[in-house]
Amino acid sequence: MKPHPNTAFNADMQNLEILILKMGGRVAAAIERATQAFVSRDAELAQRVVLEDQHVDALESDINSAVVRMLALRQPAASDLYEVVSVMKVAGDLERLGDYAKNLARRVPVLVQSDRIEGATAAIRRLSMLVQSMLRDVLDAYTNTDLALAQTVLDRDVEVDQMTNTLFRDFLTHMMEDPRNITVCMHLLFIAKNFERMGDHVTEIGEQVIFVETGEQPVPRAKGESTSQITGPLGVDGTG
Amino acid sequence: MKPHPNTAFNADMQNLEILILKMGGRVAAAIERATQAFVSRDAELAQRVVLEDQHVDALESDINSAVVRMLALRQPAASDLYEVVSVMKVAGDLERLGDYAKNLARRVPVLVQSDRIEGATAAIRRLSMLVQSMLRDVLDAYTNTDLALAQTVLDRDVEVDQMTNTLFRDFLTHMMEDPRNITVCMHLLFIAKNFERMGDHVTEIGEQVIFVETGEQPVPRAKGESTSQITGPLGVDGTG
Question: Is B113 in contact with A231 (Cβ distance < 8 A)?
Answer without folding.
Answer: yes
